[in-house]
Amino acid sequence: MPSEKPTAVKYYVGVDVGSASVRAALVDGFGTVVAHAEQPIQVWEPQPDHYEQSSADIWAACCSVTKEVVRGVDASQIRGLGFDATCSLVVVDKQFQPLAVNSEGQSHRNVIMWMDHRAASQVKRINATQHRVLNYVGGAMSVEMQPPKLLWIKENLPESWEKVGYFFDLPDFLSWKATGVTARSLCTVVCKWTYTSDRGWDDSFWKMIGLEDLVKDKYEKIGNHVLSPGEAVGKGLTPDAAEDLGLPKGIAVAASLIDAHAGGLGVIGADVKGHNLPCENQPITSRVAMICGTSSCHMGVSETPIFVPGVWGPYFSAMVPGLWLNEGGQSATGKLIDHVVRGHVAFPELEAKAEASAHSIYTYLNSHLDLIKKSLPVGFLTVDLHVWPDFHGNRSPLTDLTLKGMVVGLTLSRGLDELALIYLATIQAIALGTRHILEAMQAAGHEITTLFLCGGLSKNPLFVQMHADITGKPVVLSKEVESVLVGAAILGACASGDFASIQEAMAKMGKIGKVVQPNHEHKRFYDKKYEVFLKLVEHQREYRSIMNSL
Asked: In which element (H, E) is residue 487 found?
């Protein structure tokens, strides 16, 4: 009898726009990344706390990396496309042309980045209203959300404000470029714009903060058509976008996700059987997905809404359909480590030695710590060195963007040993900050047993081990390091109709690679470090109070 023709492999494209680069991956139905490409994008910092990008530059990079990953692949096997991106604000006029978000009138710089803190006075006024929508962002809105940025534009750039046709969250801008449809994702509007899945927009909030003009046009500028993440947008990829991206026209395009939420989607639903984890045979509500890159996000889900002071949410169906999401976060993690290491006087020596050994600077630093630890566990080297990591303010659980970084225990030493120690203390501080967030979530009602890590920092074994030891919880790493891209591809897979639900796609396409267990013998040391950690912020507030009394 003639043998049956093998079924052609189905592929999905995931595109991830991060803070400094755009990445794309071709992913199969089992969650394997078959091809991967990356291209840097430009960031402008015209003044402190102002960070801007160009939507044209971002889209061009999306097109370049997508063409690269699908080169040589049979177009008929590519079934769907999913986007994720940072929650940056894109501003365009009524003809969808870019509008300046800066006083210089540079219209190509039409994106206010997520990490931009220019709207500090606006967010302070918004929080002073104590409006009910603030209950869904931990009681206080972050300067990184969109309403304060909109208010800043209205108050500081009246010419741009008058010309605005649309404000997009960057993930929604990408789905519009691909389909020509201005629908927004439930993820973006719920998490960053105060939309709620049951009541929609709250007119009284926008009127109270001075943005009543958005209400007048029935929210056309910020979105009055909302889709669930993974839902198919419009009629799929337009001919123009298909040509730009090198993809077949008409393929399914999914309603998008914020990048951290895509990472959560890529890891949190993985099958953990046989790994002896406390979350085995437990619902995914016992897991927290931690997406660690330039900043870090801590994503926990629950079956009923849990209000956690200082932690964003609860957001219904913003990541996993049918579940409530709480989102903790740290505004600078990878960026902080880079800042501390590259700013040290011994950095040129580190760079030269790492290059000579053909290792990255962080692999070299990890090896150097092993050399100087002697008989001690590596983590114990910082017994007299402590860092408070909020160099860019505190997102969770203190929601205080005015907090500053602190280092206690410096000496006059300037060598590579000292650089390695401050690097270690900074990683520990980030992990202690994670513990602070998890404790707030658990105190409010979350039952968290296991951490699932993804993102660039999850490739650093020291970062991972410190998170396991300091939180006392096992850390799961995904088989595919690029979990954010897998999450974006899961969206495309759902939009294509090849999976019945997001949950089914998560289970099939999310795979465990490695489990890192905490060393419980080190618990007492890290409990003491945590005591010191909490004292640091107390002292900062005390000395600020003294100085404010002048």
From this structure: helix 483-496
The CB-side HSE value for 464 (13 A sphere, CA atoms) comes to 21
Q: Can you tell me the distance from the alpha carbon of 92 to that of 82, in angstroms, rounded to the nearest whole number?
A: 22
Residue 397 maps to a domain:
no
Give the burial string for 62-85 (b: 16+ CB within 10 Å, else e).
bbbbbebbbeebeeeebbbbbbbb
Q: Residue 550 is which amino acid?
A: L
Asked if residue 1 has pLDDT above 70, the reply is no
Please indicate, yes or no, if residue 377 is contained in any of the structural domains.
Answer: no
Residue 345: inside a domain, yes or no?
no
pLDDT given at position 6? 61
Which of 459, 393, 464, 377 has the alpha carbon at shortest distance from 428?
Answer: 464
497 inside domain: no
Closest CA to 470 of 382, 397, 341: 382
Residues contacting residue 451 through CB under 8 Å, at least 6 positions apart: 287, 288, 290, 467, 468, 471, 473, 474, 475, 476
pLDDT at 169 over 60: yes
Closest CA to 245 of 79, 488, 23, 67: 67
* E strand or H helix at 84: strand 78-85
| Model confidence pLDDT, tens digit, residues 465-495 | 999 999 999 999 988 888 999 999 999 999 9
DSSP codes of every residue in 130-160: --GGGGGBTTS--TTSHHHHHHHHHHH-HHH
Length of the chain measured in residues: 550
**Residue 474 backbone phi and psi in degrees, to 5:** -65, 145
**Rounded to whole angstroms, how far apart are CA atoms 144 and 154?**
17
pTM greater than the 0.85 cutoff: yes
CA distance 493 to 488: 9
Q: How many domains does the chain have?
A: 1
Q: Give the C-alpha separation, 98 to 109, whole Å.
A: 8
Give the integer Cα–Cα distance in Å for 498 and 232. 12
CATH number at residue 36: 3.30.420.40
> Which range of residues forms the domain containing residue 120?
11-255
